[in-house]
Protein 1
Amino acid sequence: MLSISPATRLVKLTAAAGIACLAGVVEPSVAADGWFTQAQATQGQQYFNNQCAQCHRPDLKGAAGPALVGPAFLATWGNKPLSALYTFEHTKMPAVNPGSVPPDQLWAITAFILEKNGFAAGSAALGDAASSRVLTSK
Ligand code: HEC
């Protein structure tokens, strides 16, 4: 399923990245329409290490649980609304105690996972308001 706006956004971001490269600017990717705040993703890493990393590893490459980074992860969750991923995490994870992670922490964890999959930081925190956004543009 392709909708116009994420594709358009991707083109814009790609163009912006190209310009940044030409100008020799090397900065963390912070897009106006990014997905989460950098602070949220950084906080999410702490929560992830405490509550998810024992099965998914701190580098998200997977152990008892599957990898949460890379092509297989994106093949499963890409092109779906963010809510699909969040709902899975909320209802099934952590596998030993599903639903035990408070929403604000789980959103931060999700921000960290998206960051590790190449999605850009922006000015707004990830949360319910972004639920219907499709996981395509980075
Ligand atoms: C006790 C081990 C364990 C812990 C802790 C755990 N997971 Fe998992 N996780 C699994 C297993 C096993 C699966 C595969 C089960 C399935 O797909 O139904 C999985 C699957 C997933 C998936 C789907 C991956 C995919 O592409 O199919 C996500 C996302 C996920 N976990 C996120 C989390 C998050 C976020 C946390 C921490 C809040 C967490 N998990 C904690 C074991 C664990």
Note: The helical segments are 4-22, 38-51, 53-56, 71-77, 82-92, 103-116.
Protein 2
Amino acid sequence: MTEYQPTAQFQAQLVPYGPAQKSGEFDNMDQVSSTKIIFVFIITFQTQVIFASLPLVINTWNFRSSTIKAWETVFTNKQSAVDAVVEGCSVCEREQCDTTVGYGGSPDENGETTLDAMIMDGATMNIGAVAALRNVKDAIAVARNVLQNTKHTMLVGYQPIMLDPCAVGSQATEFAIQMGYTNESLRTNYSQGIWQTWKDNSCQPNFWVNVQPNSSTTCGPYEPISNNDVNNFWTRKEHKFGSGHHDTIGMIVIDSNKNVAAGTSTNGARHKIPGRVGDSPIPGSGAYCDNTVGAASATGDGDVMMRFLPALLAVEFLRANMTPSNAGEAALRRIVPHYPDFVGAVIVANITGDYGAACHGMLEFPFSVYTELTGNRVERVKCFSVN
Ligand SMILES: *[C@@H]1O[C@H](CO)[C@@H](O)[C@H](O)[C@H]1NC(C)=O
Ligand SMILES: *[C@@H]1O[C@H](CO)[C@@H](O)[C@H](O)[C@H]1NC(C)=O
Ligand SMILES: *[C@@H]1O[C@H](CO)[C@@H](O)[C@H](O)[C@H]1NC(C)=O
Ligand SMILES: *[C@@H]1O[C@H](CO)[C@@H](O)[C@H](O)[C@H]1NC(C)=O
């Protein structure tokens, strides 16, 4: 069950059978679980340890309660891989994993939380996605309704100016309500507090460039500066991402019949411009899968990553016989020459049940795995850097 791949520098910290962590505790995890886990061992060879078996559940970050729910869905209840991804990611939406998934996090410039989610079925190559979904908490479940109850791929629910959430124009919301979901505000005191602090801080940071008044010092409304004045002087102030600010749950499930599904759910970038859609609901960017090959899902700086479709790239590199970790790294390497400071990660699995991950711009990236052989555990990869 152990395969050695001398090319891949890898350090894994294996945490078998620890108690399910409440999301958001990654930074304290070792401390929290030290008394409870049976054993922890650290492997530091030039190897990658692979425990390939099906079914397989793998998801970004240490969102373990999602992993466990997906496992119960596909293994215990023998439901489909698609259902397992939806059930698993739905846990994160309800638990507001790190406040970057689900309601009450990442308020936009109007103080509203909107949700992006996608589910893809590798058996049928069918996809359902929602983008900028307002007033409905169950984003990935609504995405499954788009997959199962429409011939469309993505519904978008945003009307930038009017703040009535269900005014004509919030089409994805109307669809969701028709499908039986609850119409409710996604604001919480927490998200309103973040928004108020941002307003009080002259709307810093934000995502505007080449506008006046100066977006580095002043709130909007803005207007574009003339083309003659556009120069490299304007730099985007990046938001903190990475440890402690994980931004998406991405999940892959492969059932014992080798049916592959992949999906994502997120509330996007904090202080995003209203109407912004990130990489998570974009097929080939947030996730991609194909029953003949495997699957990938990405997390990170979505505005940059969606320009490269890293999940599609990783699946195509699998098709070209790369190992999962090498396929993930090759996908991210496409981005680096253009955006050397980008932060992101990708998880990859092939239909044998071999899996891996790659990351850039952080020290390491944790992801959660569940198979019969491994149980549920969090693994970490060291991120590559080009120097
Ligand atoms: C949804 O809730 C909002 C706010 O309470 C309300 O204005 C709107 O009419 C509701 N829409 C539907 C379709 O129920
Ligand atoms: C939210 O804030 C309001 C007003 O400050 C307060 O009355 C309410 O108890 C708070 N709710 C929670 C859940 O903290
Ligand atoms: C905008 O404000 C920042 C911060 O004060 C300053 O460094 C920059 O020079 C300003 N840009 C322009 C074009 O005035
Ligand atoms: C999955 O990846 C492993 C490790 O690279 C490889 O041994 C296996 O053949 C791959 N499976 C398929 C179906 O390509």
Note: The chain has nine helices and 16 strands.
